[in-house]
Amino acid sequence: GAKDAGTNAAGGSGQAAGGAAKPEEKKQALTFRLADTHPPDYPTVLGDKKFAELVSQKTNGRIKIDVYPSSQLGEEKAVVEQVQLGAIEFTRVSTGVVADFSKAMGVFSLPYIFDNEAHEWKFLNSADGTKLLDSLSASKFIGLAYYDSGARNFYSRKPLKSIADLKGQKIRVIQNKINIDLMEALGASATPMPYGDVFSSLQTGVIDAAENNWPSYDTSNHYTVAKNLILDGHQRVPEVLMMSKVAFDKLSDEDKKIIKQAALDSVQYQRDEWKKFEKKSEEKIRAAGVTITEVTDAKPWQDKVKSVIDKYRADYKDVLDAIDKARK
Amino acid sequence: MINAMAIAILVVSFVVLIVLRFPISITLAGSTLLTLMYLDVPWVVVGQRMIQGINSFPLLTIPFFILAGQIMSAGGMAVRLVNLAQLFVGAVRGGLALVNCVACMFFGNISGSAVADVSSIGSVLIPAMKKKGYDADYAVAVTTSAAIQGVVVPPSHNLVLYSIAAGGVSISSLFLGGIVPGVCLLLTLMAISYFIAVKRGYAKGEPVKRADVPKIIRDGFLSLMAGVIILGGILSGWFTATESGAMACAYAFILTFFVYRDVPLKQFYVILRRTFRTVSMVLFLIAASDAFGWILAYLKIPGLVTDLFLNISNNPYIILLLINVLLLLLGFPMDMAPMILIMTPILLPVVTAMGVDPVHFGIIMILNCGIGLITPPVGTVLFVGCAIGRVSVDQATKASWPFFFAMCGVLLLLTYVPQITLWLPHLAGGK
Amino acid sequence: MKTLRRIALLIDSFFENFALIALASMTVIVTLQVITRKLFNHVFFWSEEVTLLLMVWFSFMGIAIGFREKLHMSMDSLTKFFSKRVNRVLDKIIDVCIFLFGLYLIVNGWQFTMLMNESKLPATQLPNSVQYAVMPITGVMICVYSFLQFIGVDTIRHHGVEEVSE
Ligand code: NA
Ligand code: NA
């Protein structure tokens, strides 16, 4: 259906240019902006570009989406505010940041709620995952699709072979209540710090450890100074591609459909690119002689942070139940 | 899509407002606002970007180091440092200018921000130089130029910014890469300072009386310890470069009010007010530049300018020259951080495709943006220097030209002899 | 009239002292952060966020007070060749534009503050609007100062403060 609509739209626009169309068939050429914080070759930006390309294809170039990578239009939170305002039409942003605007998205900060990637995506692709995405409209966003951002692991300049090793370590985490409680539950000390200071702080020992996914551990070069990695996968915080509701509401129903479909169609490509990038990073990091500890049994970790889940269970009850349901 | 009309509105309103002596920050915010009105983008973006431009932890170094510098200069540390400097280079003509260069290098090794550098060293040495008979414009020009070393030599949060924008260039390699270029810059600036001092006929310092030497060393040592504590604290992992500004304040506070006790504690209120004056002006500029940078990015102006240059040639030497010229030109109206963040992703792929090492390009980029900090109409370091030295932007700009050209010379040297930058990183095995 | 003037000056001093205290507090918080982290392996979760909040408030009040004290830099390379009369007119035009900028901060700043009331700051969970609420306040201050300057009142309160003890 969407594909046909796209062709019709282009036809309409062609006629309009010829001046022969009825006024209501006249389709306006539109240019939108999509902001991303990562550099141009990063998998999230590749996903953005794929999405832009699909939209352009389906509208025969009538709707053009310019991708602005590398934080050109600002850091994630500032961009989200502008998307809310309608100053920027699209952004790819972490659900962790969106949580400040739409509380339910904060659920992904809870530790060890997903067993693995398959579990995560089974939930995200389920009706409940879509419902969560749709709930963004209350905060003036249109959630279009989830993108992959892998799993987050701890890495330290000190030995990190087991859960016990985390005790007493100063760990830089993204500042939010759940993360601080998580650090407390693990016996570690949450240390606030801007991302740009983390490398030198790991190098000099202001902090002992930090946490991130494979690609960021690689591109930030943190692996050169924090050479102990434990693959605990404590969080899977997906990315979300979203549109400003202000801009969305101005679109024709046809265009709305095209954009929503193009976003969903770009997901597989983004996930493939993420996989490729993750693999490349992993190979590079293994070759660099980083001490890597696999976590074969997640049970002790899940037990240790149970208090955190319990504390927030009431806040995120429906979503947590849906995530548990997706496990089966 | 190129929006020629919007670009015209931005450029024309910017030029008109600035030549009609509207405050520069108002010019930046105002021309951005006019362009937003034309584009029908919500107007409040200017205000939002201004807030977000300030809402940055590393930016804290600016008020901190300005405050530390104010405490140091009010509390008698300036005099003691000058005396100590006198001891070493008193016999050289223009000695205080040379001390200024070295001191800025030393503080640059601590702060990583040229603005913090000029505010701390400048607050101490510009008044001291004026007192010793140097012209104010020369004192400001020396200090602002010397402060640029701070962004090149490690630690430098601007290099970290570049590394982030470049998507994963090794920060340790960048830091190592900045050391030798920093020394080149130091030697060049010292030579220029000396020649101008001779030409302007500045006095040699009076020789220090032998009996005073122990006291000068003892007093100066405690002041110099501020630097040692900061550098030592960062290197040993006690605190980050950003936090070091607060530590400098704490140390200067204790030294001034509990050790030297030249001024009473209630003087601290006046110091705060004085700091507030400089800081508020600088932060307004940073805030307004952030809004301006946003609209530049929004209209894809940097990309357009780059395309223009790339259409001219594909010879790496010529491209690098063109990029240097482009960055120098953009450095006049643009501030450092937005320039690094906007231009790096655009220019880096172009140069790496021609085999230029990203570390090498990083240092070129940083020095280039650094030079932009002392050129009007948007030169944060220049403005801070002018505020401290109480000279007009025009006067300071005029006195800065020799330093500007000297630094451009160093820039060309670094551009065409990559070994200067890459020697240390390669030695350490970094890539 | 005299009482009105006294009250106005009192309010003005309040904002200025607030900004000065913010500046001092930022320094104290960051110093504390270093000490508690090193000695007790603990950092208050709010320290970074509160410091930045103080910084934003302090800077925006600084913008307004900078107008009061005529601190903000401009380039007079061209206008210094204009006649005195033209420059006097230009002064008035600039005052009006600064007033309009203040008005912009009040109106748009207030709307945006309201919009940001729904979102939160991540660590303290304060409403996001506390960052932006300083915009309208700064706007009011700018409007008052530029209006006074327009009708010819000398608003500079700290003549001679900037003199570094030499
Ligand atoms: Na530095
Ligand atoms: Na400049």
TrEMBL record, chain C:
Residues 26-151 form the Tripartite ATP-independent periplasmic transporters DctQ component domain. Its main location: membrane. Belongs to the TRAP transporter small permease family. It is found in: Cell inner membrane. Keywords: Cell inner membrane, Cell membrane, Membrane, Transmembrane, Transmembrane helix, Transport. It comes from the Bacteria. PANTHER family: 2,3-DIKETO-L-GULONATE TRAP TRANSPORTER SMALL PERMEASE PROTEIN YIAM (PTHR35011), TRAP TRANSPORTER SMALL PERMEASE PROTEIN (PTHR35011:SF11). It is a multi-pass membrane protein. This is C4-dicarboxylate ABC transporter permease. The chain crosses the membrane at residues 7-30, 50-68, 89-110, 130-148. The keyword Cell membrane applies.
